[in-house]
Amino acid sequence: MFRYAPLLSLTLASVALAQTYSATYLPSNAPKTSEQGQSGTNQCGSGHDQNSMCQNAYINSLDDWCVFAPPQPGADSTIGDTERIEVAWCTKDGHGTRLIPDGAITGAHFVQTPDYVQITGVGDLTKINIPKGDEGGELDPHGADGNGNPIGGLVFSNAFGGQYAQMHEWTNFVSDSEFCFRACKDGPKAPALCQHIYDVMGCEWNMPGDYSAGSFDSCLADSGEPMGVYGTSTFHQGDPSTPAAHPAPPTSSCTTTSTIGNGLAASGTGSGTSTATATGTNASTTGKSTVSGSGSSSGSGSGSGSAQSTTATASAGGSAGGSSPAATGGASAGTGAATGGSSGTTASVSARPFVCPDPP
Question: How much is the pLDDT for 178?
């Protein structure tokens, strides 16, 4: 079921001032577990292991990045049901994680800005244990209880200066066919640029960018606008109108490649050393809520129909729930109209459901 929390007014200043970090790690000195109740580990070794329970993710470059995804296959391994226990799946060997099999990613687009790095794209993510048809959800370092989704998940990057640093603020959406991951450099802008309260809004609303299949590129860009902030107004899930996503910042200095891979077929097992066990508790959830990507409003369920306003609330802990818009008729979700927030404009968008139920 969805967990509803009191609506909090979040401004750029209050979020930045309120954010403190209790610990900072490197891959070389991370503890076995960094949070109580963690199901995996942060001591991951090297090489790779397709049974690894490593919960360290990396965003370094076009050919070296990770997403969090379920440790086990099966119909019960939806992101909403496993968000507390996800493990790292990476494109490059050497991190002690599981590897994303070659061919699973059919399009990937890496962008580096002064304040964050971001990877967006598409693929067959059933190859990393996400059930077919799973509309996905959000993972972030906060979660409902402050321990993160997954509990104890850490993110590192060497994109800023060549040396690894922990990215304390990050947000990762993943479904059976689409992914996006942004990690923000520590600083006053990080909480706003890696905001985590828009967990039903999906990739393209939270992280505007290139999601096309059949191409792989790495670009530079200016930092985009903080998600949900429009001038002096801040949008909250459940507001009467939903503004369109911010436009993606223009890119430059792009380089392209024909594909990315690591030589691992879908049946590969592992090499090197990797720590694959840890103990903890899994808090699972059930339920659905959907909202589309760009210019978000949503349609879900069966049939086609008009997307309606939903009620949802968000907390600084990074969770929010919503009720599915009504739809009637045949077998597919319809097209909704999204009204344009503080500007008062109306944007028509296609409903692309994306869900992230949080634990009750």
Answer: 98
